[in-house]
Amino acid sequence: MQYWLVKSEPFKYSWDQFVKDKKTLWDGVRNYAARNNLRAMKKGDQVLWYHSNEGLEIVGIAKVVKEHYQDPTTPDPAWLSVDLAPVKKLKKPVTLAQMKEEESLQNMDLIRLSRLSVGAVKEEEFKKVMEMAGM
Predict the structure, then answer these.
(1) C-alpha angle 127-61-4 in degrees, rounded to nearest 5
(2) What is the 3-state secondary structure (H, E, C) of the chain?
(3) How many CB atoms lie within 10 A of CB 95?
(4) Using CA atoms, how far apart are residues 129 and 89, in angstroms rounded to an integer?
(5) Contact indicator for 47, 84 with CB cutoff of 8 Å
(6) 92-123: per-residue pLDDT in tens?
(7) Mean pLDDT of the chain
(8) What is the structure's pLDDT at 95?
(9) What global pTM score does this model have?
């Protein structure tokens, strides 16, 4: 299993809305590195849900329920989507500020590549975030 992080602006699509919807397609990605991460996602992989711009915190865990396919928002086959489903809300959100203070997370894509909307997460980073979330 691999681990990932996706960013969503809560005023556009929040964790709570995601939970209500029970599933969503992750579309609209127009960055090659983020697209390559979508391509690498496998069914069952765990995905951290990060609220960007507002909140700046990881709030939940999702899972990949359908591997990559052409993004339906564009006719260009170069762009991909995956389907995600919620797994659980974190006991307590883990803020960007907390992660930046944690030495073991300094190489995390979220910290190093702050503009990347879909990033890889190493297993030890995922475990540390879970520890910080009280899980």
Answers:
(1) 65
(2) CCEEEEEECCCCCCHHHHHHHCCEEECCCCCHHHHHHHHHCCCCCEEEEEECCCCCEEEEEEEEEEEEEECCCCCCCCCEEEEEEEEEEEEEEEEHHHHHHCHHHCCCHHHHCCCCCEEEECHHHHHHHHHHCCC
(3) 15
(4) 13
(5) yes
(6) 999 999 999 999 999 999 999 888 899 999 99
(7) 95
(8) 95
(9) 0.94
